[in-house]
Amino acid sequence: MPIVSKASPRLSDPTPPVEIVYPAPDHGRGLAGFDTRLARPRRYPPLIASGDSTPAEVQLIVANSEALVELLGLSSFGSIPGLTEIIVNDASSLAGYDFETMDELTSLSFPNLVSIDPDNTQGGYLWISDCSSLTSLSMPVYEPTNGIDQTLSGNALDATSVNAFLARCVAAAGYVSGTIDLSGGTNAAPTGQGAADVVTLTGRGVTVSTN
Amino acid sequence: MTTSKFSTTPAGNEELVGIFSYGNIPGLTGLTLNHTTSLGGFSFSDMTELLTLDFPNLETIDPSAVQSGGLSVSAMDTVVSCPVLTTIGGSLIIGTIGWTAIDSQFPSLVTVGSQIVIISNSSLESISFPELITANFIGLVANPLLTTVSLPKWVPTNGVSVDAKGGGAGLGSALNQASVDHILARCVANASLTSGTIHLDGDACAAPSAQGQTDAATLTGRGVDVFVN
To answer: What is the pLDDT of residue B35?
Structure first.
């Protein structure tokens, strides 16, 4: 089973969703209150369209295995009561990570994570946003896949975390396109080498936003 | 579920976070998730190679509605099975699915805390939630072949919203008269229902029968906004 991953499907992306239509209501409540948090249509069309591939050998994955964790994405769209620290031990991820509005979270680390969707097979992405207490992010061996969009906006990341993340992006020499969003919230501005890394990344073709 | 520190190992912690995939996992055609509960919920989309998605033990998703954890399946034709799922604190969203019926997938579902949204399913003809009692927002939008809805135990409460019209022409469903009548009857059956909005006036929805019209009038008299063809 290849462990591979890529870019993010978000309702907030400028490109409108293609698979699901959310018609604006013209009456009453309609769909105005439609909870979209768990219906995130892909920004990109499926890379393997239905019917394009030969039937694969049935391969069953059962939860509670490390392999499963590294294939599927992990998400949370709100606080988990009492949870202040998350450690994700994956070495790789296919679908990626999406943690948002976890206001109790102060520390998030991926000590072993090397890649997300390295072969761009399914739009794996990194999205950690609007966690108002999140000061520490650690991804010491991470190297982003070229083209991946990485949203870390609206958090409270300290300068160490901001600088370290930018350094990891620079360390991935093949990361020459994509976006890094470290803006918003109380994220620290990059300092020292971090500021230089922004210039490096921008020079490569990566779009970088910081406070 | 209260813990100060989460780690993806040991196993068990995965019941706290949500699980998603928005594309195929190469070679993967069957996925079984053995959770008994989940806080963050599940979201799967565009897994066009996935043939089966089974939750054999899943009983609840965010039952206390801590973070609106729900279940979303879209843009895939996968056979889904949730035989013992009773409670979803957030939403159940089914969109752009190739199914012709929603009947056996959720035989035990009793409560959906937020919304049931069935949207843009071009092949879907019928929906049945045999045990469903609580769900105060039901969206049946852009399902052109959807004629039959069965909610025999459903108890709508004040503020209920049923939308079989969608946002405009061609975005509703095609509920037959029996289903239109059925939804109205379920609303009338709760004598304390005095507010809400019931849109059964999608372009292709049938008009209610005489009894259905009576029920619509009853509901209107109570203060519920009812729209029928």
So the answer is: 82
Reported confidence tier of residue B112, pLDDT bands at 50, 70, 90: very high
pLDDT at residue A69, as a whole number:
57
Reported ipTM: the value is 0.83
- Please give, rounded to a whole number of angstroms, the shortest distance from the CA of A15 to a CA of chain B: 16
pTM: 0.81
CA distance linking residue A204 with residue B13, whole number of Å: 39
Q: Which of residues 11-30 of A touch B (CB under 8 A)?
A: 19-30
Min Cα–Cα distance to chain B from A197, Å: 30
Q: For residue B141, list chain A residues with Cβ-Cβ distance below 8 A.
A: 23, 31
- Residue type for B38, please? S
d(CA A90, CA A83): 19
pLDDT digit string (tens) for A104-127?
Answer: 999 999 998 999 998 888 889 999
DSSP-assigned beta bridge partners for residue A180: A150, A208
Please answer yes or no on whether A83 and B6 come within 8 Å at the CB atom. yes
For residue B74, what are the β-bridge partners? B45, B95
